[in-house]
Specification:
533 residues; 20 helices; two-stranded parallel sheet; 3-stranded antiparallel β-sheet; 9 strands
Length: 533
């Protein structure tokens, strides 16, 4: 059983998010409950009063001017949930749903939503019992919150909808009963507090951006392999160059490449007899391109960690003054911008990786390696179509990277007249990351093949390794040798053509699982921001 993650509103960081994405259960820090109770008391008194408060004793959206009698407030909240369960499409992955539930706990734990502690305990109980609401993936425009997805979550809390429990798809009420939980009867504003927020979009965006950071760093590993496979220069990675520009991602990427290539025989072997003056940009400008992508991802991740700690429903209770105020924290524009930033970074990392693959398979560019990296070209096609696959995946990601945040359409009879489109902007990141993992996996295969051919003496005749005519077999750095050994334990060197799909899948799995990064543990690699600062 995974350790329970304690969620302290305002202090939930990367470590907690990663634990939740790994399946850990969660509970709210009990220190947050006094403020939750204070806000609930203020709201309960308002619900009994004569003044109108949106969503407490009024209708919703365009119907906000309709007053609701005190005896109908429970029915109002239940109707809200049932009527808003309008999601369509495939079910949202279970780990994303669980993260969404945990983020809702954090938001309610800020003590500004006016819900009772019983609402928090219901979410905690479902997380502990492994009840995962079935949440259709489509239907949110990212304002006024992720209404449809969060309604499907809330429906299970009140005994409606559907959920997965221990591998069974059950009606919500049956899932609660099987886990020993009772359906929740919603109090004033509690349904609105549960569905009026950005947690669906934020969960997808967090998962996608965290994965994008891991893939960006992995691309530095495969990029370093490509540098050695191409017998390229490491001078462009010198720290003095990057310090003169000052971009933090660029500096970190340059340090990583130098660290990964430290101790390589190939690195200095071509200095005598190599007539090349500069390498192609895909090799030389890795710090500038991948480093810039890392900066974008880090900025997006900082935004999302702030959002993970935010109160994002409406209206909000100001405990200090006793006021209930209407605002717009449900608008997911920050999440939409962050998702767009991550998408741009993912697309560019794949773009430059694909160019490195193309360079290595091209005999006009790969500095003495055989065409398409097959020892017997002509009879064999080698990595010819693997490069085409990488190009196809990069093109898909380029098309998907078009910004979603600049799109908007009025909804709810023009009451919600500008929306963020954060939900599908964040959802696309998962598929883009799958494509990127495969592109990087293909680079892993191609670069490892190139280095193995260098070991066999595939070096231009005019080049004298280390100034010696006899030394023709060269090895890469100790760190990169570990990566090649990891790959070769699953995928042998390509001698003659074989069915390639399994090789591509195995390499992509090593990339996506983090195994490639684990193989170079101890190298000077960029780290993701840890806290919402």
């Amino acid at each position: 059983m995974s350790r329970v993650v304690t969620l302290t509103p305002g202090r939930v960081g990367l470590a907690e998010i990663e634990a939740l994405l790994a399946g850990a259960p969660a509970r709210l820090d009990r220190a947050a409950l006094p403020r939750v109770r204070a806000a609930a008391k203020i709201l309960a008194e308002a619900a009994r009063g004569a003044a109108g408060f949106y969503g407490v004793n009024t209708g919703f959206g365009k119907l906000a001017s309709t007053r609701i009698r005190p005896e109908d407030t429970a029915k109002l909240q239940r109707n809200l949930i049932l009527s808003h369960c309008c999601g369509v499409g495939d079910p949202t992955p279970a780990l994303i749903v669980r993260l969404m539930m945990a983020l809702k706990l954090v938001s309610l734990g800020r003590g500004a939503s006016g819900v009772r502690v019983a609402v928090i305990e219901q979410l905690e109980g479902m997380l502990a019992a492994g009840i995962v609401p079935l949440v259709p993936a489509q239907g949110s425009v990212g304002a006024s919150g992720d209404l449809a997805p969060l309604s499907h979550m809330t429906a299970v809390m009140i005994g409606e909808g559907e959920a997965d429990w221990r591998g069974q798809r059950l009606p919500g009420g049956e899932a609660l009963k099987a886990a020993g939980l009772d359906p929740l009867v919603l109090g004033p504003k509690e349904g609105l507090a549960l569905i009026n927020g950005t947690q669906f979009s934020a969960a997808h965006a967090l998962a996608g951006t965290i994965a994008a950071h891991r893939l960006a760093v992995t691309s530095l590993v495969t990029g370093a392999l490509s540098v050695d496979a191409a017998m390229a220069s490491t001078t462009p990675f010198r720290p003095e160059i990057h310090a003169l520009r000052g971009m933090p991602g660029q500096i970190a990427a340059g340090h990583a490449l130098m660290s990964l290539l430290d101790g390589s025989d190939i690195r200095n072997a071509h200095l005598d007899g190599d007539e090349r003056v500069q390498d192609p940009y895909c090799l030389r400008c890795q710090p500038q391109v991948t480093g810039a992508a890392l900066d974008l991802i880090d900025q997006a991740l900082r935004t999302l960690l702030i959002e993970a700690n935010a109160a994002t429903d409406n209206p909000l209770v100001l405990v200090e003054t006793g006021e209930i105020v209407s605002g717009g924290n449900f608008h997911a524009e920050p999440v939409a911008f962050a998702a767009d930033q991550a998408a741009l970074a993912i697309a560019e990392i794949g773009a430059i990786a694909e160019r490195r693959i193309a360079t290595l398979v091209d005999p006009a560019l790969n500095f003495g390696l055989p065409p398409f990296l097959t020892p017997r070209p002509g009879l064999n096609s080698g990595f010819m179509i693997a490069e085409v696959t990488a190009a196809a995946l990069y093109a898909e990601n380029k098309q998907r990277a078009a910004p979603c945040s600049i799109d908007s359409t009025p909804t709810s009879a023009n009451q919600e007249d500008h929306v963020s489109m954060a939900a599908h902007g964040a959802r696309r990141l998962a598929e883009m990351n799958r494509n990127l993992a495969q592109i990087i996996g293909i680079e892993l295969l191609v670069a490892a093949q190139g280095i193995d051919l260098r070991k066999r003496g595939a070096i231009p005749a005019n080049v004298k390794p280390n100034g010696k005519t006899g030394q023709r077999q060269l090895r890469t750095s100790p760190a990169l040798e570990k990566v090649i050994r990891l790959l070769r334990a699953r995928v042998p060197m390509l001698e003659d053509d074989r069915h390639m799909a399994g090789d591509l899948a195995a390499a992509a799995a090593l990339v996506a699982s983090g195994a490639v990064l684990a193989a170079v543990k101890g190298a000077n690699l960029p780290q993701a921001p840890a806290d919402p600062a």
